[in-house]
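Thread: "does anyone have the structure for this chain?"

Original post by V.I.:
We have the sequence but no experimental structure in hand. Need at least a predicted one for the grant figures.
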Amino acid sequence: MTAERPRTSISAWRPSVPGIAEVFHAHFTDHAYPAHTHDTWDLMILDDGAVDFALDRRRHGATGAASVVLLPPGVPHDGRTVTDSGFRKRVLYLDDSVLPQRLVGGAVDGPVLDDELLRHRIHQLHISLGHAGDEFEAESRLSFIRERLHFHLDALQPLTPSREANRLATRLRELLDSRIPAGISLYEAAATLHAHPTHLIRCFKQTYGLPPHTYLTGKRIDQARRLLLDGVPPSQVAATVGFHDQAHLNRHFTRHVGTTPGRYVRHAH
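Reply from O.Q.:
Generated one for you, tokens below.
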């Protein structure tokens, strides 16, 4: 009898290449990401299958052929499988030294890039990142990818998001960012910002596309991933990033990443 294929396989690590915060390879046969944000740019190629995702409340689709998906920092997005076999993806999480914040608007307008040359260069970079000692080659390949991404994003006319003009939502986001491990109650936030609680939630969701508690959970998951890659045991990560207990971390981590913290660590290298 043929053994059943594993439903999930992942590999994650932090390379010694400036500008790359994390490398993440995964095969998901049945997984749906909830709406969340990242501090980094997510540069993804698909090796198999197809995905459907929403970015800033607009839906998009991508397949493994020649598509490159670029998700900007700070903008809500989700993702889900659309085929029975799921999808295989390779992701680079890039910091602002590779792509500046001013390009976010262009990426929101066009997150799927049909560019075979760009996809090939990203593929070559992933190969070099898989070999210790090839850091110089990886840096060189990343520079060409950066150049190609600028070619696409600078050609778009970025729209100035209305959320940038929303002072109250911006102040709440800054407050949440400053209280990630400790957290803050809705009423304390409302008192601090001199706003009615429901108005505060409505303003934040209208501006950023997700409620404040969902945003805070996503930020905690981002911190948890970094700590796990730093070698912090999963049993210590929950309290460090602000989750109630290990089960609380496991539940949200699995929803966001598609695997438990323990499996994430075991497959990291």
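V.I.: this helps a lot. The radius of gyration is 19 Å.
O.Q.: and Strands lie at 8-13, 20-28, 32-36, 41-55, 58-63, 67-71, 77-81, 87-94, 112-114.
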